[in-house]
Amino acid sequence: MSLARVKTRCRQGLSAPLVSVEIHLSAGLPTIALVGFSEATVRDAKERVRSAILSTGFRWPDSRLTISISPAALQKTGAGFDLPIAVAILIASKQLPSSLADSAEFFGELSLDGRVLETKGLLAAIASERDATTLVYTSEVNAEALFAVCPNLVGLASLKDLKQPDQIKKNRPSTNVPQDRHYAPTTMNLPAGQPELWRVSEIAAAGSHHLLMSGEPGAGKTMAAELIRQLLPKPSTKEILESQILLDISNQPYSLERPFRAPHHSVSTAGLVGGTRHANPGEISLAHNGILFLDELPEFSLATIEALRQPLETGEIQVTRAEQSHVYPAKFQLVAAMNPCPCGFKDSIDNHCRCSTAALNRYDTKLSEPLLDRIDLYVQVKRSRVAEIMAPTTQQATLRAQAKTRVDSARERQITRQGVENARIPSAQLLDLCALSTTTKSWLETTGERLRLSGRGLHRCLRVARTIADLANTESVTSAELCEALAYRRSTCMQ
Fold first, then answer.
1. pLDDT tens, 135-147?
2. Angle at alpha carbon of residue 184, lines to 182 and 189, rounded to 5°
3. Domains of the chain, earliest start first
4. Contacts of residue 309, Cβ cutoff 8 Å, sequence gap at least 6
């Protein structure tokens, strides 16, 4: 009888707690029993591991073999358990020294010929906190890609590399391989003319405020979303890692840029906020620390866009399914665009609207007031003049560079002052951070009552005014900033 225990990790949402792969060899018929809460991919590991062990020159133990992955109640998913199961079997059968598993973790999928294959979804496990002396064994491909996250990675090409454990450390990557292999700079044009659209885009980028644009087709709403993307500052190392873990869970390529997600209006509710039977993250989580661009907002299903209300307020989403429940971050910046009516020409001075009164009423009721109340900025976009469209592109580049400088300075002031962007200032700190004078506060109370602002609308107006003041490099918020912020409320624009 022999027993071996090897450490690995099992992803649960964004975290990856330690689990133990235990192997027990006992007298009896040579059978394999895998116990513990696991999906089919993990249960099939015993067949892959057996073939890999025999193909690499090791012997298969002629004993009854029990495999336990504890804690048993934790659901195990993915093929990354192949390598720790194989190592535990080889240690239990005395073919590898037990010291190999001391201060070590193992991750990786095995092929039938014993090669350690690239394994998806390991970033959360590799990035977990662990003792500095702990070695992490995985495939060579994973070791090269994730070396910047965990310098104690050891790359294995095949299971037979473990036959010479003293030489394994030589496989450790020596250089940091760039991770951003899939990003291509955009060549999209920026809005031509339209100073109001440039101004509201600058405010949105400076304070991470949610923005809704309404205008006829071709007015430049999509280009404004691209402008906001280019004005945002580079993400921090922590933000990059958070985004990469979410992308890794969804089996999508990494990027060093801020996320910019633009799902089609046919996306399901599960695709937008998260779901499937594994409770995977949705588009709002993949847009964490970046932009979620929803073009043709009223064309999304009512249930889908209404599901945005809670994450817009809290910055996170709990995805619950029958077997598991995970909380994912969702601090995204919503940038949405819509036409004023189904045909798009309701407010146009050049084209005649073809929509019936009933169609206009149905279209207007697609967006609920609770959802619209959570949007900080609303702007009606007019089509650019031909002379503005024909202007040199260098003019747009100059305007973008100037706006970028102002946005970076405003962002720096916000982080220095309160540690977060203005859109995420807690309500309890708003009045202190805005530093309203007695006169300004009295004016805001009177104006808010007249405009019938809700408590949420008032707080969002204060946050926008704080951003406008930061762009102007002023310490306190005055009635001038508040007037501009109020002008961007949809309820004010529609009056």
1. 999 998 888 888 8
2. 155
3. 2-171 (3.30.230.10), 195-392 (3.40.50.300)
4. 370, 371, 374
